[in-house]
């Protein structure tokens, strides 16, 4: 494989890994905000414990997801300097906005939420988790604005081979951004719903002592998945008219791998839609627990939305080739002047680092998920396992 192929493979690995962290983070923070709202209004102790338990999983995934995002930014600068030279004035605007406005605010609100537990007024603390969730989605919004520009460059003029931003509003009304953002939004809720459902089903299979806790969590996960999947499918198919108008050759450019990814995503979306809506009646009188076999299917379904997300992302990005900025800048022209050996070394180092982060995330989350919530009479501990180390 030549240097260009290695650079593209490295981009695929880093963005795919990071994307999975983002989806779970968004899904979990939304569900944590919902459980904390119910806890604040009803003062139900089960809802408080749910907020603490799922919030802890969310914080672990968020922390390691930040690390993958920083690594991804490094590979952008190292391998794709041509993108910054030609389109940095346009492409950099939403990325800078994401960092300054969304990410910093999200981190600040999350920090206050973690350290303000049991210290702030409960309504102020509730406001913090919703602000964290809103800024998290704002962060994704600006990333998707930047990606929408790569798919369909708008709002610029060509100034001697350099793209200059002349219409910021055009980036926000870009049709390749709007529907795609709705798709990612509903995909994140689906990932969160399926994850909470699967972990809860695991504990119900094991017949742990926390039956009421995970029974309530299971209901939340199934209902969330059932509500999110119709929007997920609708927003997914809503992108095809946009693709047909602005990237008519996308399916051909995506090739066999992109086509398989698209098919996997569509099949998984319909499977989760049907399974969640068939599961809703089984929540009555706890039939889903009495029958037991649906619980095993719920555990096995945990990886499905992640695989579907990778498949859809492959189709979206492969279908843009051979362009990095569609119709303006070819991928090979945007690559940094890096030798093949240098690119191979970079690819191995970045992939190894991402593998370590992914394994660490999986081990930490799996351990916390298997352990379950703290006993009712246990002394209060920080929401974040990172807090004692700070």
Principal-axes geometry comes out as: globular
The arrangement of helices and strands along the chain is HHHHEEHHHHHHHHEEHH
Helix fraction?
A: over 70%
Strand order of the largest sheet: 1-2
> What radius of gyration results from the CA coordinates?
22 Å
What is the assembly state of the chains in this entry? single chain
* Largest sheet descriptor: 2 strands, antiparallel
Membrane topology: Multi-pass membrane protein
Transmembrane segments: 12-34, 55-78, 90-115, 127-150, 180-205, 217-240, 260-283, 295-315, 343-365
GO molecular function: electron transfer activity; heme binding; metal ion binding; oxidoreductase activity, acting on diphenols and related substances as donors, oxygen as acceptor
EC number: 1.10.3.-
List keywords for this structure.
single chain; 390 residues; mainly alpha; two-stranded antiparallel ribbon; 79% helix; 3% strand; globular; oxidoreductase
Describe this structure in words.
- There is one protein chain.
- By secondary structure, the chain is mainly α.
- It has one domain (3-371).
- It has helices spanning 3-42, 45-79, 81-115, 122-151, 168-172, 175-206, 211-237, 239-246, 250-282, 287-291, 293-300, 304-318, 331-334, 340-371; strands at residues 156-159, 162-165, 323-325, 329-330.
- The strands form 2 sheets. The protein has a two-stranded antiparallel sheet with strand order 1-2.
- Strand 1 and strand 2 (162-165) form a beta hairpin.
- Helix 6 (175-206) packs antiparallel against helix 7 (211-237).
- It is globular, with a radius of gyration of 22 Å.
- The termini are far apart.
């Amino acid at each position: 494989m030549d240097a260009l192929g290695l650079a593209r493979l490295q981009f695929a690995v880093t963005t795919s890994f990071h994307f999975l962290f983002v989806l779970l983070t968004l899904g979990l923070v939304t569900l944590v905000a919902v459980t904390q709202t119910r806890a604040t209004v009803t003062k139900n102790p089960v809802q408080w414990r749910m907020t603490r338990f799922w919030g802890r999983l969310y914080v672990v995934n968020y922390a390691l997801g930040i690390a993958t995002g920083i690594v991804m930014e490094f590979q952008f600068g190292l391998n794709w300097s041509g993108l910054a030279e030609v389109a940095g004035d346009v492409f950099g605007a939403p990325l800078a906005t994401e960092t300054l406005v969304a990410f910093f605010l999200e981190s600040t609100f999350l920090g206050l939420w973690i350290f303000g537990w049991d210290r702030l007024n409960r309504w102020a603390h509730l406001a913090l988790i919703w602000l964290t969730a809103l800024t998290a989605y704002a962060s994704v919004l600006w990333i998707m604005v930047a990606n929408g520009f790569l798919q369909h460059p708008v709002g610029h003029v060509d100034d001697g081979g350099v793209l200059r931003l002349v219409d910021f509003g055009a980036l926000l009304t870009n049709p390749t951004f709007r529907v795609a953002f709705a798709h990612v939004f509903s995909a994140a809720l689906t990932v969160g719903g399926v994850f909470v459902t699967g972990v809860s089903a695991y504990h119900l299979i094991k017949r742990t002592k926390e039956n009421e806790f995970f029974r309530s969590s299971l209901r939340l996960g199934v209902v969330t998945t059932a509500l999110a999947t119709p929007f997920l499918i609708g927003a997914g198919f809503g992108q095809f008219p946009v693709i047909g108008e602005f990237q008519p050759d996308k399916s051909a450019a995506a090739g066999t791998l992109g086509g398989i990814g698209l098919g996997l995503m569509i099949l998984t979306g319909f499977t989760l839609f049907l399974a969640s809506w068939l599961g809703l009646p089984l929540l009555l009188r706890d039939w889903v627990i009495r029958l037991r076999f649906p619980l095993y299917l719920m555990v096995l379904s945990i990886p499905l939305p992640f695989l579907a997300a990778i498949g859809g992302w492959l189709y979206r990005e492969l279908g843009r080739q051979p362009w990095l900025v569609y119709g303006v800048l070819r991928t090979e022209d945007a690559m940094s002047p890096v030798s093949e050996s240098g690119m191979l070394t970079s690819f191995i180092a970045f992939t190894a680092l991402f593998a370590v982060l992914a394994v660490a995330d999986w081990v930490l989350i799996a351990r916390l998920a298997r352990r379950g919530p703290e006993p009712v009479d246990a002394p209060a501990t920080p929401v974040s396992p990172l807090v004692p180390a700070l």
